[in-house]
Amino acid sequence: MKLFLPSMIAAAILLSGCGSSSSSNSVDTKVTEVHAIKPADVAAYVADYKELAAKLAVQIDGKSSALEMLDFDMEEGVIYIRYDDGIIVLGFDFENEKPKNELAVVRHNDNENALVGEGIELLEKDAEFTLSGVIVDQKTTGQYGFEMVINDSLFSGGNSQLVVENNSAFLSGTLGTKTYIQFKELLLDHPSVNRIVFSSVDGSVNDDINMHTGRLIRQAQYTTVMNSDGEAYSGGVDLYAAGVTKEYQPGGKLGVHAWCCEGNKDAGELGKNHSAHGAQLTYFREILGKELGPEFYFFTINAAPADDIHLMTPAEIDKYFF
Prior knowledge:
Layout: H1 42-53, E1 57-60, E2 63-65, E3 68-73, E4 78-83, E5 86-93, E6 98-107, E7 114-125, E8 128-137, E9 143-150, H2 153-156, E10 161-165, E11 168-175, H3 177-189, E12 195-204, H4 207-219, E13 223-226, E14 231-233, H5 235-241, E15 245-248, E16 253-256, E17 260-262, E18 265-266, H6 278-288, H7 292-303, E19 310-311, H8 314-321
Parallel strand pairs: 11-12, 12-13, 12-14, 13-15, 14-16
Antiparallel strand pairs: 1-2, 1-9, 3-4, 4-5, 5-6, 6-7, 7-8, 8-9, 10-11, 16-19, 17-18
Helix pairs in contact: 3-4, 4-5, 4-6, 6-7
């Protein structure tokens, strides 16, 4: 679970988690299944994401680059976007879910000097934003042409990495639609992999697809691994929970909290029968069984509010995962 932001930024990267314990696949057939994205619609959802993601680009002084979401700061009102040669710091109006015409570019080879946007024009069309103008080098006063196209896929894709070493795949970064695609490719390209090692996963920006990523992990019968120096928060714990078996070394961090928000309330403030719990309850019944799944889900959303984090204790890890 994670703090859900306005629709364009699907979810914050707040630490949190949903865990697992039993490897049971039992599902309470008397309970109606609820899905934010129906299983039959996942392929179309991913195809739509890929089409939007292909449009993400920046051109600086005639050189083009793809884009990837890096981080954001709601207090400062900025998002950080990675491109080939550095980072773009873009002003963002979180309340109205749109970028501002304020930006700076920090290049890898000159990280003490920013190129600042001047006369940046912002054009919105069909939920896609184009920013164009010039950026000015603060040292040399040199000017460079700038044009950037962004859309929802920038925020919902995440920036996860899945690196294969022998029979293990090491997962890190922020989860999103890109993570689901990475696991689909892992299944096709690396059939010998049977372990998913959580290196450093800070959460998910797209809980709807993240639950389907967890289903891929369970269907593939992967073992999920948390080493002593690993950490997983929020949606990362959702995926750790999905392992058909789980390994844990003392010192590994698993963090959980409530998601936000439904009617300005986080999940822990909603009644247990509230419909907003439906998709998560469906997922955890599948992953942990009809009794332990709901118990663990409600544990996570009451363990800490959406703007905080609860690191699971050894006793809690043992109770829910082993």
